[in-house]
Structure prediction request, 226 residues.
Amino acid sequence: MTNDKYEGNNILIFQNGILGFEDVKRYKLEPSDDDSPFYSLTAVDGHPSFVVCDPLWFVPDYTIPNLPGIDNAIERLAADSAEDLRCLAIVNIPGTACDATANLKAPVIINIKNNYADQFVLDDPDLLIKYRLFDNSPAYENSRAEVE
Amino acid sequence: MLILSRKTGEALLIDGDIEVTVLEIQGDRVRIGINAPADVPILRREIAETAGENAEAARALPVDELMNLNNFMKKNKN
Prediction:
């Protein structure tokens, strides 16, 4: 199943780097907690480091088969099928945690069989580069008033 | 914004030495050819935006921020 929680804790190989950090090819992905959508993605030599999240916790239909151009990812990551792929979104935290956004326009896609990964800019004008994680998820509707 | 109509095969010139040619139109997709000096950077806009977003998102090891995010999730669950 493509919806399985991704375990993380791997060295990932970004052959093309991450956009803006093209020279950095090897990152370590580590879960932040037992029951959390958040991971750290840190270059093996320490810089840069990113917070990434499993977008399915926030956008249930953001599944691998639903992503536009996924055939391109299968080919570029030398995967046998979409079932070998997992998806993470890079998180930006401009202020406090409640303002966190995830880049759903350009997810990091991982081939769990060979640990190759790449950031794909998806061809869908409706996907947001800054998707506010804690505004739209049903689990957080009640918390919004409290935060504001 | 300056808006021009062009047909397949027609081109326009920017600043004399940058030539943008419409190569093919198919449905909602246009293939564009660009001739420009080597020192003119050309990027698809979404690539440049993503690189900018990544630069904002990059940080030192985000131990505290991850803890804050997880605490925020736990506190607000249900």
About this structure: Chain B is about 35% helix and 25% strand. Chain B touches chain A through 31 residues (CB under 8 Å).
